[in-house]
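Field: sequence (string)
Field: structure_tokens (string)

Example rows 1 and 2, in order.
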Amino acid sequence: MIKKTITMLAFAVAALPSFAATSVKATVNGMVCAFCAQGIEKRISKMDATKAVFVDLKKKTVAVEAKEGKTLDEKAIAAEITDAGYDVVKLEQVQKSVEEIKAELKARK
């Protein structure tokens, strides 16, 4: 009985996602148009650890998701945004995918 329960538990745990995606969410001032958003997205997409990028002009938010097995460098992301001419007001790591962050931001409109 115990062996069967342990086996079932092992299969249940294996079926779960291993962990939530790690992303960096930045609040950015100075973005005013689609060209601004596109420029930031293009720069950050070129970074080695980047899987996905989403920029929301109205919410002044940039979300960057890490590739599996990679770690995002928050300082490098902030530097890319700053070098593009924008101000990073806040930077935080979140355990969500870019799609989840995007859905949250759209729900708040």
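Row 2 begins here:
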Amino acid sequence: MRAKDELGRRGEEMAAAYLSGAGQRVIDRNWRSPDGELDLITVDGASIVVSEVKTRRSTDYGHPFEAITGAKVRRLQSLGQQWLRDHGMAGTAMRVDAVAVLYGQARWPVIEYLKDVG
């Protein structure tokens, strides 16, 4: 596995643990369709949550959240609707969240969470 892919996988594991600790239940990971991929799908109360995870080693090229553009959020919303249809849950409340995992000089990564980014 390439180092970049391994970093992303570790970041998604950290994000899943963080969201679980915050009371969300992870129900799917790395769901793929011809149109793209969803990193994490969780349940938070009555809502399905699509969480985009961005993992970086530093902020040299910007904060991880900066990679989540308006176009990216719209694509995640569309993919989330596809996921709901594919799982017989069309019409269920859904939101898009973002998780940044930053591996820097600290012993443990810093995790930041944004609820309802779009």
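free_text_note (row 2): The chain has one domain: 3-114.
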